[in-house]
Design goal:
single chain, about 260 residues, alpha+beta, Uridine Diphospho-n-acetylenolpyruvylglucosamine Reductase, domain 3, Enolase-like, domain 1, five-stranded antiparallel beta sheet, 12 helices, FAD
Length: about 260
């Protein structure tokens, strides 16, 4: 292993100060440590966020559930508040990776990394969540960019994510069996003002599907989703699945997610 310094600050301000100097932030380590082992990343300084109590905790605030950036996937999956107010989020968290990944991976780490096949970004975008950082609050629609790209500035850290509670919601993914990432994952949510549909695994990053949202806002039923034509032109094609196959998955999984949300 090459040499690097290791810092474990006790406050968000200290962590942000170190990150602003170019230090690499370690949240759950499920992506960063693997990249370091493969020599794809070689930071000179690591900043472990694991000792910062300000970044932990899950609480209800009005019509939203606020999850601290360092909340582990397993904590979100088992938290009574989440299971009661946002069962779709608890279900999503409980099926990320394997047991070890769920024990170590964090909400903030996943959202900040923005892997194009990750599950949490679908929940953030599908629920229209707000990402809280050390500098501001960012709406989900403004947060995600392309592959591994977000609106975060250099040294800006996620502190929490506030998830609005919908009338009903569900997430289903078709897993790539080796990685357990989503070959296609769809998060559907019904609010009083209409439906939101977020798709992960389909291309360069998570995205909303306007056609499915319009159909489900008119009638939140599997039949309404089935009537929407999914364009394969913007979807990715690789050794795991063609774009046409992914397009069919988007349709099928959306129908199943709606049926699941309806109970």
């Amino acid at each position: 292993m090459y040499a690097f310094t290791f810092e474990r600050p006790a406050s968000v301000s200290d962590a942000a100060r170190l990150a602003a100097t170019g230090a690499k932030v370690l949240a759950g380590g499920q992506t960063l440590l693997a990249s370091m082992k493969l020599r794809l990343a070689s930071p000179d300084q690591l900043v472990d966020l694991g000792g910062i109590r300000e970044l932990t905790g899950i609480r209800r605030e009005g019509d939203a559930v606020v999850v601290g950036a360092m909340a582990r996937h397993a904590e979100v999956a088992s938290n009574a508040e989440v299971r009661s107010a946002l069962p779709a989020l608890a279900d999503l968290a409980g099926h990320i990776g394997d047991r070890q990944v769920r024990a170590m991976g964090t909400l903030g780490g996943s959202v900040a990394n923005n892997d194009p096949s990750a599950c949490y970004p679908a929940a953030v975008l599908g629920l229209g969540a707000t990402v809280h950082t050390t500098h501001r609050k960012i709406a989900a629609d403004d947060f995600f960019g392309g592959m591994f790209t977000t609106a975060l500035n250099e040294g800006e850290l996620i502190t929490a994510v506030a998830f609005p509670c919908p009338r009903r919601a569900a997430y289903i993914k078709f897993k790539q069996p080796a990685s357990r990432f989503a070959l296609i994952g769809v998060f559907v949510a019904q609010f009083d003002g209409g439906a939101r549909v977020a798709v992960t695994g389909g291309g360069n990053g998570v995205f909303r599907h306007a056609g499915l949202e319009a159909a489900l806002s008119g009638s939140f039923t599997p039949e309404a989703a089935a009537g929407v034509q999914i364009d394969a032109g913007s979807l990715s094609s690789d050794l795991h699945a063609s774009a046409a196959y992914r397009a069919n998955l988007v349709s099928v999984i959306t129908q199943r997610a709606v049926a699941k949300a309806l109970g």
